[in-house]
Amino acid sequence: MKLPVYxxxxxxxxxVSEDITPEYEGLxxxxxxxxxxxxxxxxxxxxxxxxxxxxxxxxxxxxxxxESFPELAGKKLTLINPRLEVLDGEAVTRGExxxxxxxxxxxxxxxxxxxxxxxxxxxxxxxxxxxxxxxRIIQHEYDHLEGKVYIDHISPIRKQLIRAxxxxxxxxxxxxxxxxxxxxxxx
Length: 187
Prior knowledge:
Elements: E1 5-6, H1 27-40, E2 45-47, E3 57-61, E4 76-86, E5 91-96, E6 106-111, E7 113-119, E8 125-131, H2 132-145, H3 156-161, H4 163-171, E9 180-181
Parallel strand pairs: 1-9
Antiparallel strand pairs: 2-3, 3-4, 4-7, 5-6, 7-8
């Protein structure tokens, strides 16, 4: 089932997410729905806060980007309770977009070498290092679990330049090709 993507301005995107346990009710179905939502929205990653849940769950399938980044072929992960460690390396600036910020893309500087600890959908432990664009995708989605969005990494001047677009998202003055949930109206 396709779920609505929560858009910039919704408070759920600014909360720090909580770990889940193996007793989490409906986890397999939720993960399936997250993948379906991500694919229907033409995304390569989706974190639970983006569907209104402050749970530490991320789904990633970077294979749609393999034409531009061949190393992303077959890169698909379900991450439960991930813990991220950004490793040393040169920061690289690349464009990023987000399903929760439709119509926007900004250059973000990130170190593209990370170590990730996580559980899979069967709660089996994993640890692996990732680099390049896949490490960027992981960091982007991980930020959602920490109550951050990618524009938190851009300069204040640049953020001011896109303020009108951000206000339009918050006000619901945008159109999306996928189901969305806008921020609650302020009274």
